[in-house]
Amino acid sequence: MSETESEGALRKNIDAVRTIVRTVKSTLGPMGRDKMMVDAGGNSITTNDGATILGELDVSHPGGKMVIECAQTQESLCYDGTTTTVVLAGELLSNSEGLLNKGLHPNVVCKGYNDAARMAVEYLDDFLSGEDEKPLENIARTAITGKTVDAALDEVSNLCVQAVKKAGSAEKVRTLSLQGGSLRDSYLFNGAIVNKDIVHEKEMDGDYNIILLNTGLEPEKTEENVQVQLDMQGYTQFKSSSKDDLLEQAKLICTWLPTGGLVFIRDGAHDSVCAYLEKNEISVVRRLPESTMRALSGTLGLLTAQTPSDIECSASGTVVKQRHNDVNYLFVEGEVESTQSTLVLRGATTTTLDETERGFDDALGVVSLVMKGDKTVTGGGSTYAAMASHLRSEAASVSGRPQMAIEAFADALESIPATIAENGGQDPLDCILALRHEIQSGRFNFGPDLENEGICDMEKLGVFEPMSLVRQVVLGANEVTTAILKIDDMIAMRGE
Ligand code: ADP
Ligand code: MG
Predict the structure, then answer these.
(1) Residue 423 CB coordination number (10 Å)
(2) What is the whole-number distance in angstroms between the Cα of residue 416 and the centre of ligand 1?
(3) Whole-model pTM?
């Protein structure tokens, strides 16, 4: 294969990535613009969230797909920083093109980039991250700024922190978006919210004895393709035995709830069972998702029994029924200290609510990272600028051509604060020069001042983010860039 053919594959990949980067670049930072994405059916999403935009993009190019996968990894590991990863990967690739034009071999660029990424994260670990605890509210605020919640930033950041503290980690916080009201009406509910109604509708509000049940209240499904031949008598016996069995199970529940109560069931419950229980003042909520059962268990401090014969106790709880947009919700609170919390988000339109929920997801995630012991760094791209300066001072000590790659890596890192400034309507070059000047004087915490022009101290502004987020951005973007640089040919594969 000729040199030009192999370069052709690489350049096609670089072009594909460039298109993706162009799509998300203008969303980076608090002043980033939103994207409205519309599909063929006319459905639309309006978002500022890099991960969401990339997830919805119709990308068929393999090089582009690699970058999207890298952003998804960032999202799953660190919850936030997806746009930053894509922008950095795009800059790294663009800069590598300049180096290739100057005659550097892709392998030399890869070596220089790998060395640069290693040096940058070592510097981040050793010098840029602070041990002292930063208010978690600030971490939440940094992640959520710019995500349509600006009008209630303080309330929202507080809610995020409370929710994660209560639940212990972001995964355990459940969110429920209810259309209506404004964001300021959002609150943390110390319990579980079930969006299913009871089988026989009636007024619910009050205290109940509650049982959680997995299965056992509907006839067992017969195996498919099994043929049984029964005469009439046998058939009646077969039918009534399974019915009797179900009735036995229902009676067992009644012995646990002699004065009536409420049963939440993961599986189905036969109508005859529900009717029998109803007669005994026991209401049934059936076919609940696993996650709701877990939330109820945490709220009530009660284990879910496998079948009615495994029930060991009931728990008391308060249930309030609310109706929103024609859907009934049961708000369940226990008497014990709940390990479960549900964020109830309010907003005027589903579009803004969806975007708010995405912002919350990022913020809950980064708060839980820091709560679990991650160090913090200042945001606004300040760390990227500091790492870039460090790389430039180190580059001189590296002999040969990889030195040029290290410098190109430094340039790419600086594009993060530059893009944040540019999206805020400022000049990116002025921002970089001002940041370099501060870093030269030993001030590493400066970033673009989006309120008043120029730059300002991110520490004073309270803009902090988890260190592992920045680390993963640098490593992830480098990994995908070097992987793309190593591809020298694209060959059509025989389909399966
Ligand atoms: P990502 O998808 O990469 O998280 P965002 O659009 O959420 O992209 O932008 C995140 C960047 O915005 C981070 O570098 C963060 O530090 C920065 N940022 C957040 N708040 C501020 C602020 N008040 N001033 C300057 N930069 C900020
Ligand atoms: Mg973000």
Answers:
(1) 21
(2) 9
(3) 0.84
